[in-house]
Design goal:
heterodimer; A: mainly beta; 7-stranded mixed β-sheet; 4-stranded antiparallel β-sheet; 11 strands; about 0% helix; about 50% strand; globular; B: mainly beta; 11-stranded mixed β-sheet; about 55% strand
């Protein structure tokens, strides 16, 4: 069964704590993305990776970090430097067929600050 | 990043009615994507459009890529209660672009 999985579904963070959100895909896509979704707002790009061992900052990268050691995995760490981390986080991967590029999303992780 | 103009923001319709929503941009795109998002879930791809003028259907859903490449619309025919959710558009500015621009969504409520 192909697709994108994210875990956990819900995550609670204490003040000053770093937390890591998991994203795995078995679609054999090269590019992967992390977005943040806040109520009433569109999706905002945090980081993206076009290929293993390479990643780039998106529009709101401050307070976040990522790694891309494997093609299938693109974990996101929300650091203590992110002062307003409560949001719904979405991972996506892109089918790179030239001229028919399409992003597919995972089920999301909701992060709450205690 | 740039957000697309999506309208309407919300719609309340009777079951069985048809629905139309659209997205516009000040710049051209080479791909338009339409997604549906249920509460607490990730967006699910409904229709992908890759060519200006393209008209594509997926069951009761039909979407078109505007000729100017600056707009797209989504129609839902004969709405049913499970159509409830947030629909949003996304545009890719050029082949290989690393970013998508997203609309702010249309919240659809279907009254049985």
């Amino acid at each position: 069964d192909g697709g994108i999985t994210q875990s956990p579904k819900y995550l609670f963070r204490k003040e000053g704590q770093n937390v890591t959100l998991s994203c795995e895909q078995n679609l054999n896509h090269d590019a992967m993305y992390w977005y943040r979704q806040d109520p009433g707002q569109g999706l905002r790009l945090i980081y993206y990776s076009q290929i293993v061992n390479d990643f780039q900052k998106g529009d709101i990268a401050e307070g976040y970090s990522v790694s891309r050691e494997k093609k299938e995995s693109f974990p996101l760490t929300v650091t203590s430097a992110q002062k307003n981390p409560t949001a719904f986080y979405l991972c996506a991967s892109k089918r790179g067929l030239e001229g028919k590029e399409t992003q597919y999303f995972g089920p999301g992780t909701r992060l709450l600050v205690l | 990043g740039q957000q697309l103009n999506q309208s309407p923001q919300s719609m309340f319709i009777q079951e069985g009615e048809d629905v139309s929503m659209n997205c516009t941009s000040s710049s051209i795109f080479n791909t338009w994507l339409w997604y549906k998002q249920d509460p607490g879930e990730g967006p699910v791809l409904l229709i992908a459009l890759y060519k200006a003028g393209e008209l594509t259907s997926n069951g009761r859903l039909t979407a078109q890529f505007g000729i100017t490449r600056k707009d797209s619309f989504l129609n839902i025919s004969a709405s049913i209660p499970s159509d409830v959710g947030i629909y949003f558009c996304a545009g890719q500015p050029w082949t290989g672009a690393n970013n998508l621009f997203f609309g702010t969504g249309t919240r659809l409520t279907v009254i049985p």
